[in-house]
Amino acid sequence: MGSIWQRMHNLALEKLHNIEPDAYIELAGRLLKIILILVAAKIIYRIGQAIISGFFRRRTSARFHVSEKKVNTLCVLSQSILRYILYFIAGIMILEQLGVNTASLIATAGIGGVAIGFGAQSLVKDVITGFFILFEDQYAVGDRVTIDNITGMVEEIGLRTTKIRGFEGEVTIIPNGQILKVINHSRGNILAVVDVNIAYEEDINDAIRIMEDVARKYAAENENIVETPQVQGVTNLGDCGITIRLIAKTANGEKWGVERELRKRIKEAFDDNKIKIPYPPKVIIQSEEKDT
To answer: Which residues face 173 on adjacent strands?
Structure first.
């Protein structure tokens, strides 16, 4: 075994002795170029990293504020994309210095990329859409939204999927690429709408006055009502009664609680003032069989 290693060592030394001085110079030049490529890639990455960080820091102080969690996610994602692009370009340039035919390598990679792209185009679409959802701040964790007729609270936002928790506790996972329309119920003030029915025999003006009094007193107690409630008047003449609508602008997320409390208080006030709420009448006809 020792003789074999000795022969290999002697053969290597012989090859080195046979190399022309110009070859050493060329080899040193290639090594120097490889080092310069690595250093340049590192410098470009550092500069790009600083630019990306500065851009997303400005987003946090912009007029349309983005949460720190989203900014950090987008910042890290952008820096990772930049790093992999630089790695790829630097790798190709280094292979060229080593004498590798990069044209055929890129062609092979291109064919493989096309094949993978056809197989994973839905995944790529989900990721790209998820990136823009985060970047544009279309909705955030904790927002109440409606996506594809699914209404609930946003529990998690990822680059590939969004998780919506419904009112009964169920979780719906929606691929981001399938999200075409979003209704966000949690941005700015929201309108509470209360429709109340009264019987045709009742006085409409009395009912409106009572509803106004109830709404005004409740608004003075509840700081979540941001504007004085208004009774819009009669909105429908139904089969069994008259519909009167009351509206109140509320703080974000308080609409449903305000509506429930207003309905309760209006019903109690109607009972105190003997104003009847209609109900569908039932007529029972009983036939008597005659003895034959």
So the answer is: 163
User: Which has the closest alpha carbon to 248: 209, 210, 193, 195?
Assistant: 193
Indicate the burial class of 138 (C-beta count within 10 angstroms; 0-12, 13-18, 19 or more).
middle
In order along its 292 residues, the chain shows pLDDT tens digits of 556 566 666 655 565 566 566 666 777 777 888 888 888 888 998 898 888 888 777 766 554 455 665 666 667 667 777 887 888 888 888 888 777 776 766 666 665 565 555 556 777 787 788 778 877 778 877 788 898 888 888 888 777 788 899 888 889 999 888 888 888 877 777 888 999 999 988 899 999 999 999 999 998 888 888 888 899 889 988 888 899 999 988 887 788 888 999 999 999 999 999 888 887 766 677 766 555 5
In 3D, which of 246, 261, 129 has the Cα closest to residue 191? Answer: 246
d(CA 131, CA 153): 20
- Enumerate the β-bridge partners of residue 236: 243
Q: Which amino acid is at 135?
A: F
Domains of the chain, with CATH numbers?
2-119 (1.10.287.1260), 137-184 (2.30.30.60), 190-272 (3.30.70.100)
Nearest CA among 169, 139, 168, 167 for reference residue 154: 139
* 8-14-15-21 Cα dihedral, nearest 10 degrees: 150
